Amino acid sequence: MGAGHGRSKEDAPAYTAVLEWVELRLREGNLVLGQKLPGERALAEEFGISRASVREAIRVLAAMGLVRSGTGSGPQAGAVVVSEPSSALSWALRMHVATKALPMADVVSMRVLLETQSALASVRVADEELRGEVLARVRPYLEIMDDPTIPDALFHDLDARFHVELTTLGGNVVLTTVMRSLRDAVIGYVQESVALLGDWAGLRARLQREHGGIFRAFEEGDALRAAELLREHIEGFHSTVVEHRI
């Protein structure tokens, strides 16, 4: 690891040195799921900080959902990596949405940006083999969602998967990670919103028709059409929800 990681106590809390080290190790693949972090004493000595500061760093990582901290001694003791960084991003976004810290209109605008840009990029990035693999994964989602008797929760879950899978055609891993996190973040908002609608069955059928159009555009390799249909689909649902909330 190497001591003296450059931050003075005046620059930032002492425990941020541990956070930055964990971030770097995760990014480089040198810290993986199920792996334990070094013990409190080792980290304190390595970074020249107190064990209390190390414990604060572990607390922050646990709150982010990245590690699980076990107390005492033995095989269950210590901090263990329990999720990917993208899972922590999902958690943070869910908290912001739940507490209304992020305006839903801004979340919707970000979704439009991410999904349309990914669709447009798919022309350059996705070859026929990749497009075929992704669409083969997505097609069963639509077939199941066509059944009006499936539970709403399953419909919402498959809806989220549909959109996330299609973003992979853009070839940008970061974009797909953020997209997945956004979808996880707004699922509660969607469920609460449809509960207020007088004709959810009608809206659900409309959403399915739109999903079908989006799918066919990707299938035909018409990125411009796919991007426009995605924009109309996302903004249209939000507009319908807003109208019923007023």
Automatic annotation (TrEMBL):
Q: Where is the secretion signal located? A: none
Looking up Gene3D superfamilies in the UniProt record yields:
GntR ligand-binding domain-like, Winged helix-like DNA-binding domain superfamily/Winged helix DNA-binding domain
Q: Name one GO molecular function term.
A: DNA-binding transcription factor activity
**InterPro entries from the entry?**
GntR_C, TF_FadR/GntR_C, Tscrpt_reg_HTH_GntR, WH-like_DNA-bd_sf, WH_DNA-bd_sf
Q: What CDD domains does the database record attribute to this sequence?
A: WHTH_GntR (cd07377)
Pfam families given in the database record: FCD, GntR
Task: Identify the SUPFAM superfamilies for this entry.
Answer: GntR ligand-binding domain-like, Winged helix' DNA-binding domain
Can you give the residue ranges of the HTH gntR-type domain?
12-84
Q: Please identify the protein, giving its name as recorded.
A: FadR family transcriptional regulator
Question: Organism, per UniProt?
Answer: Kocuria coralli
